Amino acid sequence: MSTIRVSGDSSGYYDLTxxxxxxxNTIDLSKVIKKDSxxxxxxxxxxxxxxxxxNSYLNVQNNASTxxxxxxxxxxxxxxxxxxxxxxxxxxxxxxxxxxxxxDALVFTSGNSSRMTLNSSGVLTKPxxxxxxxxxxxxxxxxxxxxxxxxxxxNAEDFDVGGxxxxxxFTCPVAGIYWAEVHIHHANTTGQISLxxxxxxxxxxxxxxxxxxxxxxxxxxxxxxxxLIQCQAGDKIWSGLWHENTNSSIYFSTNxxxxxxxxxxxxx
Length: 268
Fold this sequence. Notes:
Layout lengths: L1 E6 L5 E6 L7 E3 H4 E3 L5 E3 L7 H4 L3 E3 L20 E6 L8 E6 L4 E6 L2 E6 L5 E2 L5 E5 L4 E3 L7 E2 L4 E6 L3 E2 L2 E3 L4 E11 L6 E9 L2 E10 L7 E11 L4 E8 L6 E3 L8 E6 L2
Parallel strand pairs: 1-3, 5-6
Antiparallel strand pairs: 1-2, 4-5, 7-8, 8-9, 9-10, 10-11, 12-15, 12-24, 13-23, 14-22, 16-17, 17-22, 18-21, 18-24, 19-20, 19-22
């Protein structure tokens, strides 16, 4: 026989005996689901997490043994979503973690918009991840001041996700590791040239990467440099060109961002 135990308001309880289905078992309903005096809903325990510690008002617990497992299952139709919603009194679902049964994809939502998707093949897409790719539409010689870093000027964009690129510099919207790369195609020239990447913080710039070429006859070719850069929110990343001579014959050739370009993105 099986027993269903119903607890009363005090320490007493009442056992309901029902025909056995698969052996003899006792189900204590007071241990299955309970709402205590502090408002915590507890499943599987009556001494679980308190809101003053974790601010947790739902506690699912099954840890009598170190090998015990606990889980919550949310099941939806084959063409629907199964998920969790987060929010406040203004919007109860402004944040979401949902599984699309149609696409077999896990969708992460913040600010009421889908921000990241993990598909069934393990491919993670983040369409709002800050990134930029800019170039120059005009072919021409770059006039440089001798032995001074000149900020490279860009007048066209392939893309600027998040709108953080302006005045030839990318402003980091959040702290993190960024990857940046710059490349140009130059004509024959003489003397040392250096293509550079810089991180600017509080108005002061630090050199983070460079590529030098020097000689009495530097033939026409491409030059590039790239770097992973640790940045704080508000830091700027920009590219520069240094030349040993005044009014150098560095040629800024164009074919969208194929020959000359400045790109980067937030890695994480």
